[in-house]
Every structure is written in structure tokens, then in C-alpha cells.
Amino acid sequence: MSHFRRAHIPGGSFFFTVVTERRAPILCTDTARTFLHTAIRECQRRWPFRIDALVLLDDHLHALLTLPEGDSHYSARWGWIKKKFTKAYLAAGDSEQALSASRIRQRRHGVFQRRFWEHTIRDEDDYARHFDYIHYNPVRHGYVESVQDWPYSTFHRWVKQGVYPPDWGSKVHGVMEFDDLDITAME
């Protein structure tokens, strides 16, 4: 059995990629968004954390979360969110991906991949690059020509607060590069 080493920085900020099983395009439906929103809010009530940035695409999401001082238990949070989402999703009659015999024995469902990708934010520049990467992701994947056209993102909140101009991330201004980030591991 593999043992993954995760960075545990109490009170730190972390970048995450969470992917659906077999990249099923399920996350942007109305019901899936509702279930995910509910699972995240319930998790925040149990174990507080701040969502600094989030983008939801059909088959994965990226998030930048900050945990409370002294807390480094992000794995428990993601496990709980995925479990709550999966229960609601399946109870609503939505289907999961085909399961292998070992997954059935382990009582796993075929909605999310078992693991997630995590990166510990090192400093303000690292934070800013991942913050921008999250918001630019729909353009990078070709869903839209401009970040402002993708509705499932915290980008709109940050425009209202004056962090981004509304036309930030538009292909009209050129394609943004994130060569300094290990994006192959994130997607």
C-alpha cells in the first residue's frame, strides 16, 4: 500500500486539485453544484477554513484554502466533503463510474478519485501565482475566452472587491503562462 507524504503546516494555505472518477463531467450541473456547496458549507461549520479561491470545471476543481491557526487537517476536510457530496449525488439518482471488485470490497464509490493533489503555499508570490492559476483555469482549458465568462469561480467575488479588473484573464490581452508551476501534476 502506498503511503503519501503530505505537508502539514498548521494554519497554512494550500492549493488543491480534486478530480472526478475517470474524469466524469459531472461537477457543473445544477444539482452537483448544490451538493458541493452544501458539503463545503457543512464542512466549514464542523472544521473552519477559508476559501480564498475556487474554480469548478466539469471534471475537476481547484481550490486555495487557508486553515485556522494550529490546524493542518485538510485531508479530513476533503474526505468529508467528497463523502457528503457522493451520498447526496447518489441519493438523487445520479450514477457513479463502474467499480472494480477491489473498490467494491473497500466500499468505495465511483464519483471522485480516491486521492487529491495538494501543494503547500510557500510565500506570497506562490500564493499569488496559484490564486491566478485557479481563476485562469477555464480559459486555459478552452471553456471560455475570458475568465469573466466562466460562472463557477470565485473570480467574480474578487472583481467586486477590486482585486481583479473585470477583463483580467481575457485572451484578448494574451495567453497567460504558468510555467513556474508544476501544472502537469495539477491537472
Automatic annotation (TrEMBL):
Coiled-coil parts of chain: none
GO terms of molecular function: sequence-specific DNA binding; transposase activity
Transmembrane segments: none
Positions of the Transposase IS200-like domain: 9-137
GO biological process, one term: DNA transposition
InterPro entries: RAYT_transposase, Transposase_17, Transposase_17_sf
Alphabetized PANTHER family for the sequence: REP-ASSOCIATED TYROSINE TRANSPOSASE
Protein name according to UniProt: Transposase
